[in-house]
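Worked example 2:
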Amino acid sequence: MSGLRVTPRHRLERLKATLADINAGPNPARIELFDGLLPSAPDAVTSARLLAVITLQLPAGEIVSNALHLVPAGDGMAVLTGVVGWGRLVNGAGEIVCDGLCTASNGDGPFRLSALQLYAGGAVRLVSAIMG
């Protein structure tokens, strides 16, 4: 699809549809943080451990400058000690939306955290989560 170019109007409509999908369901969407390597596909079986969950606001974000910026409801809490490798965005219906790399706040991953090393019982802060 690298040769496909869409109009700004269509790109905005795709972002709106993505935000609607994230907001679907009775619960707020969430980002689940895992250790290990990013799976080959969101539905691929993984042995990664769930380290923490960050709940998103409702609505889960806003579209700014042709990108969807997800907004946390607050800090999450680590349930296990470990190093975060990737995150999974789950909508309010419990359906997987996407997986993406996690990086420190100065990194270039779609999910940026204040720290990748987590300690059980400690706070986890989402610095930014941008989908474009």
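The chain has one domain: 8-131. Residues 37 and 85 are 6 Å apart (CA to CA).
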